[in-house]
Specification:
about 230 residues, alpha+beta, Beta-Lactamase, five-stranded mixed β-sheet, two-stranded antiparallel sheet, 8 helices, about 15% strand
């Protein structure tokens, strides 16, 4: 298309826009005219439902159908989320019973790993505590100050990926893609540490998730572990 053709097209579009502004302004000033023109309504596939309401026929039905599909999809998603949350809470409560039946530190560590694998489908769950001081059998040893590195200074929990998977999960680290970590504090004076779960799914734990259920399990493990002294 030459320069003259493009100019003509642009001029036609400008004229059309000007004409439409005139038409739309006229319709706003005289709304009764479109309601009273049955032939025009038929050509536009519009129908009057009441004295002052125009029904847009198939177009309105299509929009209504799309809205219902979106509503149904959102409702299904909410229902699935609710079921998942309820199942997670039920498993967490059952896990508490398992934890409270622990006989010593090593039994607690074993039960936590079983809970992670059998109840939540994770790679493992571990308890880790800072040195100096004894480290119970089956627990991970952390250098002093390592808890702050894992969670951030005074951080209580962290969800998502961490560069310290090898430290926390040792041989199982190669299959861990995301973690949930919660700070624990044992005895007086308090010794810092973490309870950590590892998942093979990179989306199982993400930074935008809440850590309430993991923190709940951590508190139970914390109080249970304080039944026995660290030798």
């Amino acid at each position: 298309m030459g320069e003259a053709g493009r100019n003509n097209t642009k001029a036609a579009e400008t004229a059309l826009e000007k004409d439409w502004r005139i038409v739309s302004g006229f319709l706003r000033e005289h709304p009764d005219m479109i309601r009273e023109d049955a032939e025009l309504l038929a050509d536009l596939d519009l129908r009057l439902r009441t004295e002052n309401i125009v029904d847009f026929g198939p177009a309105a039905l299509a929009r209504l159908s799309e809205a219902k599909v979106r509503e149904k999809s959102a409702r299904i998603q909410l229902e699935q989320t609710a079921r998942s949350n309820f199942a997670a809470q039920a498993q967490s409560h059952a896990a508490v019973v398992d934890i409270l039946e622990s006989r010593n530190h090593s039994d607690l560590a074993r039960r936590l790993e079983e809970i992670a694998q059998l109840r939540f489908g994770l790679v493992t769950g571990v308890m880790a505590i800072e040195t100096p001081g004894g480290v119970p059998p089956g627990w991970r040893a952390l250098e002093a100050g390592m808890t702050d590195k894992l969670l951030g200074p005074n951080g209580l929990a962290r969800m998502g990926q961490t560069p310290y998977v090898d430290l926390l999960f040792s041989q199982q680290a190669e299959v861990v893609r995301s973690t949930a970590m919660v700070r624990i504090a044992l005895y007086e004076p308090a010794r810092q540490g973490v309870l950590a779960f590892g998942s093979p799914d990179p989306k199982a734990f993400t930074p935008d998730m809440g850590a309430e259920l993991v923190a709940f399990i951590a508190r139970v493990c914390e109080r249970t572990a304080e039944r026995w002294p660290i030798l």
